[in-house]
Amino acid sequence: MMQNKTFEIGPMTPAQVPAVAALEERCFPDPWSEASVASELENPLSLWLTAARGEAVLGYVGSQSVLGEADMMNLAVSPEARRQGIGRALVLTLAERLRENGVHSLTLEVRASNAPARKLYESLGFAQVGRRPGYYLKPREDALILRKEWDV
Question: Is the pTM of the predicted complex or chain greater than 0.70?
């Protein structure tokens, strides 16, 4: 478990699922349901981490891995907890855990207009490898496909 002065990062627990689903609702126009989030705990291909301060979930990141490659499904930080390094810490911890599990790359989609997220990912070494026209529906927008690779 990664510890920071103000938050702790660890695997998502069943008790945290409602808070993660609530963050989905707050942060995304097309959120995952609580049942969908909960199902990730049963998926052997999934790794979901939370950043928490005590019982409060400040943010989370989720991924699925197949044959040494991972796709980051979701990353969100509570609006009140942004600009504190939580998103960066979640992505770095996820990449480290994936590497430990033999994964050599992480791919994600990000809204073309999401400048803060794009800046974060670029600062972490992600590079654009493609574009998905009309990927996001609410509102309709292209997704940029970003990828980072490392040695295992």
Answer: yes
